[in-house]
Design a protein that fits this description.
The complex is a heterodimer of chains A (about 325) and B (about 625). With about 325 residues, chain A is mainly β. Chain A is about 5% helix and about 40% strand. Chain A has a single domain, classed as Methylamine Dehydrogenase, Chain H, CATH 2.130.10.10. The longest helix of chain A has 9 residues. Chain A starts with 7 loop residues before the first helix and ends with a strand. Among the domains of chain B are: about 70 residues, no CATH class; about 30 residues, no CATH class. In chain B, about 30% of the residues lie in helices and about 20% in strands. Chain B is globular and about 75 Å long. Classes of the chains: A mainly beta (about 325), B alpha+beta (about 625). The interface between A and B is large, with 42 and 42 residues.
Amino acid sequence: MKLPRLLLPLFGLLAAVATATPAYDFYICANINRNYVIGSKIVTTNGIFQRTDEGGWRHFGYNDTSITAVAFDPRDRNVIYTTALNGLWRSLDGGATWRICNGWDMTEGREVAVDPNAPDHVYVAFTDGIAVSTDRAQTLVRREHGLPERGKFTQTIKVDHTRAGRVLAGCEVGIFLTEDGAQNWRRVHATTDTVNDLQQSPHDPKVWVAATQSAGALISRDGGLTWTPFSGVPTERALYNVTFDVTNPDRLAIGSWAHGVLTTEDGGKTWTSRNAGLPENPRVWRVGVDPAGRLYASVFQETLFHSDDFGRTWHPNDLAGSLVNYFFTLPKAAN
Amino acid sequence: MKASHFFRSAPALLLAVTLSAQPSFEGPAPVVTSVPAEDQRLAAYHARVDEVLQWRAGRVDLNNIPGTMDMASISILLTLGRDIEACNERVLQMMAEPGTGPFWMFPAVCVAFTGRELLSPEARASIREAWRTTRQLRGDTENHWVMYYASLYLMSELYPNEPAETWYTGRSSEENLAEAREWLIHWMDTTTTVGQGEFNTTHYIGEYAIPMLFMATWAKDPAMKQRGRMMLDWMFAELAAVSLNGVLRGPNARSDEGSVIERWNALASYFSWLLFGNTPAPQHYGGWGLYFAPMAKNYVLPEVIHRIAVERDGDYVQRDRARTRRFWRYSDVLSPPVYKTNYLRHDYAVGSTQGIVNDVIQAHVWDVTWREEDPRGKHPTMFSLHPHSSGRMMQAQFATHPEPMPVGVTFEGKPSYDSPDKVLGGSPYEKVFQDLDTVIALYDIAPGERFEHINGFFSKDLCDLTEDASGWIFARGGNAYLAYRPLAPYHWIPYLHYKGGWAKVRDDLGGQVLTSPHLKNGTIVQAAGADEFESFEAFKAAMRALPLEFKLEPVPSVRFTTLRGKNVAFTYGETPVVDGVPLDYAKWKLFEGPYLNAEVGGRKLTVTHGRLQRVLDFNTLTIKDSVRE
C-alpha cells in the first residue's frame, strides 16, 4: 500500500524506535488539580505536557484544567489544536497565544484530529455532534449529514492516515464513517452506549480498534467498515480507551475504571488483567504507549504509572494527583 | 394604605444600622403585610442596601487586607468611596493570581466597573491584564454561561477596539462582544419562550440576578441595558409569585442539601429580604448577595411585583412551564419541557414539577411547605423522593464516563448525591401529580438500581405526629394540617442535616426519614389549613373518610377523592385524570395564574396585581405599566 508522503516519516520512525535513539515527541493532556470545580482557584499546572529527554514533563500553553485532546499540524509543529470545556482552541505560535475557534453554539470539545493528508482540515468531536474546519480552524462549521438527530454525542474522532477526508467517529449510538470530509456520514456499527475510543493501527492501517461503554472492545480489519468484538474482553462495564503498542503489532492495552488495565500480546486472541502493582481498585482513566514501548496508566486521583514490561510491573511516574486525558505521539520536531 | 410596622420604622432602622451596624440576619424577623407608599418603599429598600454595604465595609481590617478584603468588599468600598489605596493594593494582589471561570469573572467585572474612575492606573491595568493572561472556563451549566457571557460582554464594552492578542479568547473586543451579545439574547429568547432550565433555584438565582443587574447598570448598548432590567423584573416577579412569606419553597430546578430542608436558608431569601423586606436576610447576606448590593440602587423593584410578594388576595394556583437542563445523551429531546404547579395559601404552599428529571443532582421535585413567622432554623417542609444515584443519568447531562461522577460530585458541593438517606435530587422513577394541596408521587424503581427504596422527610418541627391505624400519618406544621399516606411498608431512620452543599459534617438536629424499601411505591400528601377545621381530630376524621383505592402491581396506581372533592386517578407512567378529564400538559402556558401570565413562544410576560399591571415585552424591548380601571 502506498502511504502518503507526509506519513512516511512517522511509520518509518515507528518501525525503528526499538533500536534508534528515540526520535519522537510524546505529549499528554493532564489535569493535575484534584477536585477542581468551576470557580476554584487553580493551584497547579494543567494542560499540555511534553516529555523531556530526561524523562520529566514540560508544560506549555495555557493552564487549563479541562483539556481533553491535542493535535498538531504535521507541516508546522507550532500550529496546535486542543479541545477543552470551551470548545476548540488553536495556537499558531507553539502555544504562546491561543484563539477560541468556536462560538457559543459548540461546547465541551471531546477530541480534535487533523487530517495528515489535508492538514488544513480539522475535525472536532463535541457533546452534540461534529464540526469541521477546512482553514486550520479559522472557521468551524457543523457537518452532520447522516448523523442521527439525537444520539450524536461524539466522544472520539480519528482521521484515517491513508486517505484524505476519511474519518471515523465514536458516538452515543455507534461508529460513524465519512469518506468525503464529513460531507456525509454513515453508521458502520451500532451500539447502545457511547463508543469511547477509536484507534488506527500504526502497523496496518486497515486495522482499527474501538473501546466502548457497553459492547466491550471491537476490532475492524477492513478500515472500519465492519467490526467484531474481541473475545475475552468484558462488556458489562465501560472501557475508557484502547491503544496500540507501536513497537509490537501484537500488543494492545485497554484502560477501564472497573477493570483497570487489560493487555494482549497475541493480537487480541487472549487478554490479561495487568493491575498488580497498581493501587487497589485501580480506576484507570486512560492508558497510553510511547514509541519506545513503555506502557502508561493514569489512575484516577492517584498518579501516572508506567511499565516497561507491558503491565507486569508498575512504577509511579510523575504528576501526582493527575488525570491524563490524552496521550499523543509525534515524530520529533525538526530543530 | 396601612404601612407595616417594619416600613413605618424604616428611617429609624436606617439610623440604627448606621449607629450599631446590627445586621438584619441577627435581628427579629420582619412582619410585613402591605406595601407602603412609594417614597417609604424606596427609602426602606435603600436602607437595606446600605445595611449590606456598611456591614461588609465594616468587616475590612486594613491591618489584614489579604484576610479581610475579597472582590465583594473591594467593590463595596469603591462604591462607598472609601479606602481607595487599600483597594488598589488588594486588586494588585488578587490580579497577580486570577481565578478561572465565571465565579471569578463577574466579581472581577464588579471591581473593574466600580473602580473604573477610582482605582489607580496600575490596579486597573492589572485587571485588564488578567483578562489577557488567564483562560476563563465557560462552564457547563446555564448559570455559568449567564455569568460568563455577561462578564465578557461588559469587559469587551469597557475595553473596546482592542486587538485579539489582548484577550484570553484570542479574539478582539468586537468579536467577544458579538459572541456574548448573541448568546445573551439567545438565552433571553429561550427563557421568555419556553422557560428557564434552572428555574426557581434556591441559590443560583443570584448567578442570574447579579449579571443581569450588571447589564442593566453598565451596558453601554441601551437595548442590552434594557434587556438586563427586564430580565430582573422577570425573575423577581417569579420569585414573588412562588415564595411563601419570602421563602422560596419547592419545586426547585436546583437546590442544595441545606436549603431543601431549612427552606429559608438560601440566597433566594436574600433577594426576598432586600426587595420585599418580608423575611430575614440569610447570614452574611448569602455571600454572593454582596455583589448585588453595590449596584442595587440602580434597580427599582416595580410596585406590582412587590405587592405580589406581600399582599395576596387569597389562595391561588400558578401553573407554569420550564425546561430541563440539556440532555446530551439518553433523551429524544435536548431540553424537554417541565410542568410546574404551585398552590399558595396564607399558611402553607404546595408545589411540584411534572415531567422528566430536570436536574439529576440537585432537583427538588415537590413539597408542602408551611409558613413560619421566623423561618430561621426551621425545617418547615414535607416531601418524599427516590434517592437516585447513577452514572447513566450523569452521562445524560454531562460529558463524563459512568463511574466517576456519582462519587465525584460529593466533593463538589453536592455531598449527599450517593447517600441512601438523601433528601435531594430527581429520579427517573418518580412521577408526580398535583391538584391544589394534594400531591400523589408514584415510584416504579427498576430492580438493581443503587437504592431500591424511597425516602419521606418528616421535620423536627412537626407537631402531633401520629401513625394512624387507617394508614395515614397525621401531623401539624405551623398552621397547616398534614396527612401523609405511604403506599408500602416503611420504617424510620434519623434525619441528619447538612447545613449546605459544602458542609463536611451532618448534624442531628431532629427529624426523621420514612424509608420504604419497596420498588413499587408511592406517597399521597394532603394539606389543609388549621382554620378549616374545628380541630386536628376533625381533620383526621375527614381524611379517614376520603375514598382511596390503590395498588402497586403491575405499576403503582391510585384513585383518590381529595379533600377538595376532586376525583383523581393516577397511574405511574400514565396521564393523570381529574374528574374524568385527562390533564393536557401540552396546553399549559409559559405562565398562567392570577399574577403571572405568558404564552409559550410569546416573549411577553404580564404581571398583574389588583389594578396594577406591568407588561414585559421582549419582542419590542418595552415595559408598559398601567393601572386598570
